[in-house]
Target: Trimethylguanosine synthase
Amino acid sequence: MLCVEWNQVAEMCLYLDDMSDDSRILCLCSRAFFNDRDLYYLGLKGIDISKRNLTDYGEDEDEDDEQEAFEVSSVSEVTVEEAELDSEAELMLQMGLPVQFGGSAFEKNFVPPETCVKQHKIRKKKKKKTKCSKDKSIKEVMDNITDVCEDGSESIRDGCEDSPATTGEEGALDPTSVEPSFQENWDRYWNQYGQGILWQGWVTKHEEPELSGGEPWNCPTTKEEWAEHYNETYWHYYGQFQYWAQQGWTFDEVSECKDLEEADKIPNHTVHVPPTSTESIDCLSDCVNGVKNINLDLKGMERDSKPLSVIYESHQMQNPESLEAQCPCDPDQSEPRDVGSADRDASSGHTHTSQPAVKVSRNNSSCGQTPVNGEDDDEDEPPECRQAKIKRSHELDAEENPCQVAAEVSTVLGLKHGTGQKYGGISHFKHRTLRYLEKGVKHRSHFLDMHRPVKNRHIFFSEGSEVKPLKSKTVNKKFLKGVGEASSDLLNEDLSLQKVEESPSSSDSEGLDHCSISDPSAQCRPSDNKELLENTEDPDVEGECVSHDQIITSPSETTDSGSRRLGSLLPSNAIWCSDPATGMEQESDADTNLADTRQLVSLEIPDYLQAEAEENCNDSFSKAVDNCKKKRKKPKKKVQSLPPEIASDPHLAKYWAQRYRLFSRFDEGIKLDEEGWFSVTPEKIAEHIAQRVRQCIPGAVVVDAFCGVGGNAIQFALAGMHVIAVDIDPVKLELAYNNAMVYGVADRIELIRADFMGIACDLKADVVFLSPPWGGPDYVSAETFDIKTMMSPDGFEIFQLSQQITKNIIYFVPRNTDVEQVASLAGPGGQVEIEQNFLNKKLKTMTVYFGDLIRK
Ligand SMILES: C[S@@+](CC[C@H](N)C(=O)[O-])C[C@H]1O[C@@H](n2cnc3c(N)ncnc32)[C@H](O)[C@@H]1O
Ligand SMILES: C[n+]1cn([C@@H]2O[C@H](CO)[C@@H](O)[C@H]2O)c2nc(N)[nH]c(=O)c21
Model:
């Protein structure tokens, strides 16, 4: 299946210094969205997330994610079986917000604040009576438990329950638990921006809103939809506001009158708060007091509803970061930066677009958080963006501020502009332009998690604030470690530990000995490694290793694929492992003994990974959960044995929970090693990349230069391509082979154990796919990822060698990669497509396409 949605969002032109404008690099920015929530939840089955932190289970799998963990208690009533959260609700959870503020989960539990409290409480009481007895027992237990908070210092009652950001349903829903100053601030915010946000959202959903039949909130045909829209928008922004407020953000209120004057004295219309549901309409309108009086800028809104085609221009962006330091938006720097006439000159005539465009300038006055009502399509920006408003004008003016433009681009598009060395002798880009290709990019971007950095923190709440800061990564890690230690005595026999101990893993030295052999006649596949062999489609997959010291022609070269087939020169000390069953060959290296460096550290298994662990738990919490589970009469799940690399490292637990999103056929015998777990491409993304290749170059021969455990190679093969899969690590090739067997595509993948850097010049193919190591999961801790210096091998050298094979290259890079550096790979006058990959609305990775693979 292809991605849920694919959009071209912007076109960025990068102009080279000292070169004509024809040499500018065109960079298409696109987004691919995938949804594999079902696979994620499948991986959580058997894990009681009510007891643990969801981030431990990989929804936020990166080691250094900005989205910090949310407290256990915030999902105290959420168990995997019933966790049917939509993405928005989940985002709320991740932000530490009550799930009720998100999407469908919200709708089920709609509770307007303030004036609706009483009404709501009555409803709640009624609801409560009919609630599952699980709630009762859990509540009971929760009342008794005093040591469940992860930080160990506070009880649920004292430390968790009170905070709306960290509570379970009860605490979260009680609006009185929201600090009054927050509510006041929110009301002011909503009064000021609510109408703009509402209208902008409406306009985005409806190409050209038809106003002849009346305002959408009055028109009988749209009334209901408007109500829903209102509801969704209100609560979405409420959640956003609460989150950013917790992060220390404040917003500066501006005088409405002043705004209106600035907004060209736009005719006023009144927004009537529409019915949201039969029960809540009146109270909602009261809740959002003041919205009735907000003036709607229809004229401005109409302007905004036109397709966006906006150019941001920035000049001399050699060092946007250093410029950012002088940004006049910085409250500490009151003096505006004078861009100067030279910059203005440089800006003229560099639109280079086929479509009409509006240049965007940064008005200093707008830096000071002065949104212009209805004038600006940023009207719906979340609080963090209010600090840097952009005002449209038809000419660049002296007040344009390149650093803000860069910041805007990265805020909206989530792209990183670094100062890293450029490829191919390009010194730097003298200026750049950016044109949106999609309407409502900014609005849509708000609903995506792009790991935006949070800057400009202010003290917002009083010291007595009950809003608890989100849990830190350190705590999270400590917790994980602790769990690993504490749970060693809870080992469950069902987990086949004995088997784990006895059976060497793929990353275990015993297992490896079979492949890192010097005797070429030795068996390549570890015949005694049942772990590795079990569940493969063909039980007789043992093969022989054959030594080669000459040019080896791969079996596929004799197939009917003509000149496109591989002819590879292999290192002279290479050993090929041939599988008689499939005719596949594998190479092993006599010099390599990775086994020495790999050990099983410990066999402690966290209790929460034991699907049926509750049988061993005598505490009342477990009993309560147990009771609930029994009530649900769900069939008992088969206990799955934990792979040793997971069992030995509690940090890998999160990847285990994600196993089906990595390989949907995981249970059929998929095997990974430690590196494989954290670096394999999630199946949906790999499938999408493969489909793109299939569409552009059907039947291509693809070199997967760093194939790892085969995540991409398998998808290329499934899409009908012939794959030459290279990896330096023989263990990876073992695993890739095993996994390819599971998917029934082993015969379409040639596995070569070699250093890609050494054999690249001898490979022939139509497409090269590059997914090199990024230096481990810590790649996220870099503000901007530099593909030259942070990758090993050097990302530029990898690319240069690949260019010798073909111009059709796919580079799979971290989401925080310096886009200008990546774009420079295209060379002067070249083109590149940078595709952001979103998994469940969260930016995961970027895929960069070159040559014929760019979607025009
Ligand atoms: C990130 S993993 C690839 C993951 C793969 N795309 C997947 O989905 O399974 C990178 C792989 O590159 C391999 N590697 C590292 N240096 C290499 C080199 N010089 N040549 C070939 N492979 C290399 C590592 O052994 C590792 O398996
Ligand atoms: C450390 N890591 C994560 N991913 C990929 O990024 C996603 C989000 O973290 C992971 O799911 C994985 O696909 C990696 N891909 C490559 N090619 N190399 C890596 O070192 C790597």
Q: What stands out?
A: The first strand starts at residue 5 and ends at 16. The mean pLDDT is 59.
